Structures
1.
Amino acid sequence: MKPETLNFFERVYEVARQIPYGRVTSYGAIALYLGAERGARMVGYAMNNAHGKDVPAHRVVNRKGLLTGKHHFEGTNLMQQLLESEGVEVVENQIQNFESVFWNPSDALF
DNA sequence: CTCTTGACTGAGG
DNA sequence: GCCTCAGCCAAGA
């Protein structure tokens, strides 16, 4: 039993761990890096399973820079709080200067 | 096996 | 620029 899907999840976690401090990325960017651009939802799905792991899911948002997954964190503003703690400006679940703090895994795997 | 849901994205109006 | 629809893949009931 060694389906690539299993690796897919593991890869998602590893990419998330590679996200530098004060930076964020999108599900699509991770999916694209994994070669599964159509699997952006799967990235989020993997993130759901990433709970309890060393995966900084709070640094992963959708392409709009919106904290779509904040509801999956404890409390109501934990995700935003974590991001702001890293210097990321967040307002109303939306990251400010998103493209400025955006981190592309494909650009970092260099 | 079929249907529904989901931390998404792109295209069209 | 915002809203809506459709496509995509995987897991759970």
2.
Amino acid sequence: MGLDDRKLAVLRAIVEDYVATQEPVGSKALVERHQLGVSPATVRNDMAVLEEEGYIRQPHTSAGRVPTDRGYRLFVDRLSRVKPLSPAERRAIERFLVGAVDLDDVVHRTVRLLAQLTRQVAVVQYPSLARSSVRHLELVPISTTRLMLVMIADTGRVEQRLVELPKPVPAADVTDLRRLVNEKLVGSRLSETPPLVQALVEESAPHLRGAMTTLSTVLLETLVERHEERIALAGTANLTRGGLLDFQGSLRPILEALEEEVVLLKLIGETEPSTTRVLIGDENEIDNLRAASVVSTGYGPGATIVGGLGVLGPTRMDYPGTIATVRAVARYVGELLAQN
Amino acid sequence: MGLDDRKLAVLRAIVEDYVATQEPVGSKALVERHQLGVSPATVRNDMAVLEEEGYIRQPHTSAGRVPTDRGYRLFVDRLSRVKPLSPAERRAIERFLVGAVDLDDVVHRTVRLLAQLTRQVAVVQYPSLARSSVRHLELVPISTTRLMLVMIADTGRVEQRLVELPKPVPAADVTDLRRLVNEKLVGSRLSETPPLVQALVEESAPHLRGAMTTLSTVLLETLVERHEERIALAGTANLTRGGLLDFQGSLRPILEALEEEVVLLKLIGETEPSTTRVLIGDENEIDNLRAASVVSTGYGPGATIVGGLGVLGPTRMDYPGTIATVRAVARYVGELLAQN
DNA sequence: CCTGGCACTCGACTGTAGCGAGTGCCAGTC
DNA sequence: GACTGGCACTCGCTACAGTCGAGTGCCAGG
């Protein structure tokens, strides 16, 4: 484990050069491009150690060195400072996000912005229902046996579900139902609603009981239990940058993974602490994404977190820059949400 | 233009073999695999004519022939019958689409189904607002100066917009506004609403005038004029089938095009007649998609068309099969919509 | 502990040769 | 006049040999 400062400097230089050039970097080029203060031969010795420890590797004998996933990990954890954003990027973020009217609008703008700034695939999760509370519930009669249940959450999300009633319900009863569910549920977090909904059914007048039961079923099953998460995606075209060198030749597994909402949620949805999470190559649990890295973080108004966002790219990525961008965008989005 | 029956048969054989094998097809292989009743030499003469007319070409001297876009066009127009669906496919469609509850659900299932059956990129347009009529408008107070406008269309689409009021509006007035807009607009097609909305503003009581004006602005601008279209996409991973032989080496332009909603709408949205539309390679107006073909059609309950759906793939695609699948799926979706 | 020197490795590139699929053309046949 | 068999030709593909050079590991000396 004898990684003295110079060896770390060599690793940092290798990572930076490789990220920039996309080509294995050799000892001679290294000393030329960085002020290491030693000769190529010395660097070679250091490289030998770094390779033995698993931080770099040679694609083939007599090629330069390339960082391993482990090497990137060390780089991210100990060798890089988060790059401050350029004023241009800062301006781009502001320009992109002002003028958003809708939650939909915010999410779409955000995901495109992220993709554009990082030049990678961007993923943004809509504010999670599980972390939202009910602002209003609306019942719209579609026919005598059908209601449209519209739920508006404090995070701006609006969800609707069709409710098929067991038997016709008069308009007056619909009004009663609407009043009851709103009285009971408005203001409470969705994760806390089950007992309330239960009580609602038990307390409701006999002639409303039937309708209230199916209504509660819809509420619980489709909105609370399998809490519908929504995801926006952009920038898949960026996967083709760098030819087929990244992603070991085939985009197939990546594209397949990106089509699975569950996978995407796993990637960016589980960020509990407010820190940025970086998953490098192999660290990723999803097999299809073993050749990719993910940088993700949570966002939300103020200190609370209501959803996640992040980007996915080749392991060979500009981590400091990407981390900075992801964080900055998350912060701006949070502020935007706080305003509403 | 001397294309006698045998030359057409040769063209058909070339298209079928090339689609199946993905390799340029030569005269000898042709007579072996198809009952043409003539010798390779004769076929060669026919091929020479077909090439002169621009229906096929040679990638390089001494390779077999490959159909040109023009060749595919002739094939689609005159040389192929729509393939009947296999019972398995038929069953797959039914199994996939029953149990859909939501419009969202229907669209998502449809797009995935299409992608799976055709093994290509599938695109489904949500029922167009322009072709929908208003079933109900709901106004939900968010704060004293903010309303959430929820529009439910007869096609099942639900759209919401935040309305920022110029000054606080009491709850009673919101009730009035809700009643007024519903009385006036429910049942009318969105494309016919502008004069109605105009009248609504002019006829409304003075104390409602201000709120009604901004409300009408939101209605007209965001829902009617730039009629918000929504699109679902699936199966991008299928682009990687056939290695990089299709799409002349780079997926980049295709992926870029697929990220633009406008482009997608252009692809599948303009289907006015109920017939299936096939765009082959160069016929496509979007430069990025000159290497691809699109098969699209309209769908809707009964005979009316409310939206489009289709698939995108390499020009080297199984046109008869794809056309059949796209049509069948569109028909099923139409039936599904008619039930609601 | 660092450095310069040196032998070695091995991928990338180049040029050559042989193979074979496929063609175009032509003379002969029905 | 249409079709066919035969034949010379083209040219991409593959294999192989040779060269080049970037990069390495190792070692002796400062």
